[in-house]
Amino acid sequence: MGDHTVLFAGSGERIEITHKSASRMTYAQGSIRAARFLMQQQSGLYDMQDVLGLKKLALG
Question: What is the pTM of this model?
Answer without folding.
Answer: 0.62
